[in-house]
Model the fold of this input.
Amino acid sequence: MNMEMLLKFIDEVGKDLVLDDFNIKEQSMRLPARKHYWVAQLIKSKISRNATFEKKKQLKKNITKEVIATSPVKLSQSAAEQAAERHESLASLTAKIKELDLVIEYLEKVEKTMSQMGFDIKNIVELQKMEQL
Done:
């Protein structure tokens, strides 16, 4: 799911970054709203990652307890935690966290790009003024 979200974000950002002579005023007017949108997406992704991490932590604790309780031999806490890490539900949460980390990294770069876009628009307008002289 997160990779589909990332691909959707990539398409949206591509549309947001298109600048030409005809849409420069429109893009400059939309820029603050688009910055807000992308920062909000970044925060949502960070919240989702933190919630998934907490869910993984709690699940690991529960699986570790289960492994210790059902083991025919006495296991140390670290051995039980290692066994719990191999559980498929923990592996899927770990994969989801890695995907969310990738989405977060991308959105952080998008936020930087959107912040620089104001300068790019200003430079394009200055260039257009010089061309008209």
Observations:
- The chain has a mean pLDDT of 90.
- The longest helix spans residues 24-70.
